[in-house]
Amino acid sequence: MSAYKIPSRLQVLGSDIDRSQLKYHDRRVAVTKEFTFDAAHHLHAYDGKCANLHGHTYKVVMTVSGRVNEIGMVVDFGDLKRLFEDVIKRRLDHQYLNEVLPPMNTTAENMIVWMWEELERALEAYAGDRGVRLERLVLYETPTSSASLERAWMS
């Protein structure tokens, strides 16, 4: 087994690599980021435990796609985090979902469509004409129970 070699120096933009080489391709690439938020809710017209007030640590897995920019990036992961926090987490984290969401039964199936609509609007404003779009969204209500949406299903 060979030992790990520590580079003698870091690659330098402008001398070791040209700015024009940073964008390796012009293909559509998907990037995915995961988020969590905590909230309480209950379900109406449901005969089971979830008719009672209870809470979850929800996990949202957001996949967007686009063509890479001049430095080889579709979207900065930090920008995705800010977008999610501004559009979803700020409104839902540590809230009673039945009060803060539009009138609906707060099922994962209903919530994910609302999230898609909100995130898609925000992404359009963020990306402008760059073509970054929401491709897939998964909402985990528990570690083993989720609802998902894909772009093709939303048309």
Question: What can you tell me about this protein's structure?
Answer:
The chain has 155 residues and is an alpha+beta fold. The protein has 3 helices and 5 strands. The protein has a single domain, classed as Tetrahydropterin Synthase, Chain A (2-Layer Sandwich), CATH 3.30.479. The chain has a 5-stranded mixed sheet. The chain is elongated. The chain starts with 27 loop residues before the first strand and ends in a 5-residue tail after the last strand.
N-to-C CA distance? 53 Å
Task: Please state the overall shape, judged from the principal axes of the Cα atoms.
Answer: elongated
CATH topology grouping: Tetrahydropterin Synthase, Chain A
| Quaternary organisation of the protein chains | single chain
The helix content is: 25-40%
Based on CA atoms alone, the radius of gyration comes out at 20 Å
Provide the CATH architecture. 2-Layer Sandwich
Q: How does the major sheet shape up? A: 5 strands, mixed
CATH superfamily: 6-pyruvoyl tetrahydropterin synthase/QueD
Number of domains: 1
Low-confidence stretches: none
Please outline the helices and strands.
Layout: E1 28-41, E2 54-67, H1 77-92, E3 95-96, H2 97-100, H3 108-127, E4 133-142, E5 145-150
Parallel strand pairs: 1-3
Antiparallel strand pairs: 1-2, 2-4, 4-5
